[in-house]
C-alpha cells in the first residue's frame, strides 16, 4: 500500500529501525534519529540504495519525483548513486579549489620567505579587493573579462599601483594553480595593457630600519642559486650600480687589501672606482670564491661562466622573495645607503664619492677614484656593521658623524 503524508507524520521511532514501504522500490526508513526516504535498486547485477532526502525537509511528493528521475537514469543505463557521488565530488572540488582557498594556500606556502610586512600587505590586498568578488569562484572558471572587471573596480578608486599589484598577485596565484593541477591557464596574462599605467616617481627602495632588517633576513634565507644569493648579500654592502655588480671580475678584487677596483670602462662616469670592502663583504666573496674563482666573473651566468649573470637575476630574486617593483629594485640598494648614510651624518661628499656620483672638477680623473678613501673605508665598515645590527632585529641608535676632516 503506498505511503501517505499522514502515515509518515504519525510514524514513531521504535526500539529498532523499521521501514514503511511506498512503491517502485521507495520506502521510508524510521529510526531513533529521524525519517529517511530511500530507493532500493539493482544496477549491473548489484543491489544498491539511493538516499532521496530527509523528512520533513523533503516531502513525499518530492521524494517520489527524485525516485522517478533515478529510475529513468537506471533505464538509460546510468547508475544514479555513482552519478551523485561524482556530482558531490565536483562540488567539493569547486569549493576547495575556489580562488580564495588556493590564494590562501599559495600565500601560506611562500609567505615564510617574504618580509612579514610584505606578506601582510599581500593578503590584506586580496581580502579587500579580490576575495569579495572572486573568492568563491572556482579558479578554473575565472575568465579574463571577469578578472578585469574586478581590477577595474580598484582602478576606479584612483589607486592604480594597487590595481597593478593585485593583477600581479592574481597572476602568481593562477600560475600556482596551474602548477598544482587545478587550473589550465592564467587569465591575468591576457590583461597586459588593459589597466591604466601607474606612474612611478622615485627609485623603489627601503629606508625604514625595521624593513631593511626584514629585507636582509629574507636575503639570508633565499633558496636560489649560490651565485644569486651571494650577489644579493653583497649588493647592500657595496651599493654599486647593478651592472657594475654583475660584471665584477676576480681580477679586480684584492681580498688581502679588502678592495674592489672597478676600471673606468665599466663606470658610468668613465672614471676608475674603488670600493672598500668591509669585513662582511670579504666574507661574502670568500663564500662564492670556491664556486666561481675558476672563471672570469665573480657572478657568472647560470648557463656559462664566460658571461656575467643576467641583469634580471637580482630583480627576479627580489620578486621571488616577495618584494614588488614598487618596493625594492636593484638600484634601490644605492638609494637605501645614500638616504640612511646622509641621515646618520656622514659627509655628503664622502657618500657621493663612494656612490661614484662626483662630478668632474679640477681634480684629475686619474686620482678622483681615491678621493676621501680613508673615510670611505670607515664609512663602509660602519655601514656593514649597521646592517648586521638591523638584520639581528636590534634597536639601533645611529652614531652621527661630525662634519670635518677625515
Polypeptide structure, described:
Pfam families: Arm-DNA-bind_3, Phage_int_M, Phage_integrase. Belongs to the 'phage' integrase family. This is Integrase. Residues 202-385 form the Tyr recombinase domain. 48% of the residues lie in helices and 9% in strands. The protein has helices at residues 5-10, 60-75, 80-96, 99-110, 116-129, 131-134, 144-155, 160-179, 209-220, 226-238, 242-246, 279-292, 313-320, 332-343, 348-354, 365-368, 373-391; strands at 18-21, 26-30, 35-43, 46-55, 253-254, 259-262, 273-276. The termini are far apart. Strand 3 and strand 4 form a beta hairpin. It has three domains: 5-96, Double Stranded RNA Binding Domain, CATH 3.30.160; 99-191, DNA polymerase, domain 1 (Orthogonal Bundle); 209-391, Orthogonal Bundle (hpI Integrase, Chain A). It is of the alpha+beta class. The chain is elongated and about 110 Å long.
Give the topology.
Elements lengths: L4 H6 L7 E4 L4 E5 L4 E9 L2 E10 L4 H16 L4 H17 L2 H12 L5 H14 L1 H4 L9 H12 L4 H20 L29 H12 L5 H13 L3 H5 L6 E2 L4 E4 L10 E4 L2 H14 L20 H8 L11 H12 L4 H7 L10 H4 L4 H19 L15
Antiparallel strand pairs: 1-2, 2-3, 3-4, 5-6, 6-7
Helix pairs in contact: 4-8, 7-8, 9-17, 10-12, 10-14, 15-17
